[in-house]
Structure prediction request, 360 residues.
Amino acid sequence: MGEVARLAELGRIFVRHGAGNLAAALGLAGPAEGNLDADRLRPAATVALLRDIGPVGVKLGQLLATRGDLFSQEWIAAFASLHDQVEPIAFELIEPVLIDSWGDKWATAFRTFERTPLASTSIAQTYPATLNDGTDVIVKVRRPGTAARLRADIRLLTHLASLAESRSERIARYRPVEFLRQFGRNLAWELDLAAEARACERIGSLLQTLRVATPAIYWELTSLGVNVQQRFQGVSAAQLNVQMPEARKAAFARRYADTVLRMIIFNGEFHGDPHQGNVSLLDEADLGFIDFGSVGTLTRTRRREVVRLILAVSCDRLPPTTISWPKRSRLCWSSWRNAFRSVQPAQKSANYAAPSRLPA
Prediction:
């Protein structure tokens, strides 16, 4: 589909969901009655609109669900209802991607390969398989045509956002063009399944020291459009028994939170989407993280600011906006340094070694 045809399709989607005025303001449709009033938009209708737009709309809604600083709880709850699960496409449409990566005799690399997907998202479908040595794996395959469609939609939405900025000072304050450009860069990362595998190994080197597992990657079978990784035999955090003893649930939650915090503070590169479906309980104690398609990073300076904020809040119970060091911070900093020292020697690289003094 060309960009002109896609623009017309987007216009019809907006009108169908009662956003004709917004479509007209963005140049997607002809003049509509009345003036554009953003306050008339309703959460449920907006979510339905984003879902109909397709993968970009769904992922955009998921990202907006994290912006409690911009939206009310009603809007956040609506955006959070967007799940990146779509109807799977037939295996006959997926197989050419496997042939491009592995050749016509790709099936010889596996003892078994289930052709019904375990999951289907807007970017990829995942299939359970068994290697010839008996290892259970997950094969993640990018949906054909997805990359071109996502890039085209990002270009169109960025153009529309530029028009909206020029026509509305209220919209311009939120800098939607800058937001969409960064959003597009993040999507480009998710489209590269080999980059996801590399991130899994990089972050996994830290998590291994915390007794937190990440899937082994089978590089001889991994490419831009396909990756093959170990299949965990555990229970997803989203499926944990609600009748689990409170003490065990509390211990699991502490390890879960501690792992995320250590990724952010010690490593500076961290799992960008550690929701319940991406975290598993592998046995009575060990955790496992999967799906590193979304990764976040923090500079050393920003990590120091996070530490300052944590210390300010936890040591002196100061307002959350306080960034300066509290008077009693040296005692707290001593405790924080002990946490750094508890990291295994393998972790203590130049990237996250314990600072010798308080950050300036």
Q: What stands out?
A: Residues 261 and 300 are 15 Å apart (CA to CA). The radius of gyration is 23 Å. The first strand starts at residue 110 and ends at 113. The chain has three domains: 91-144+192-295, 145-191, 299-347.
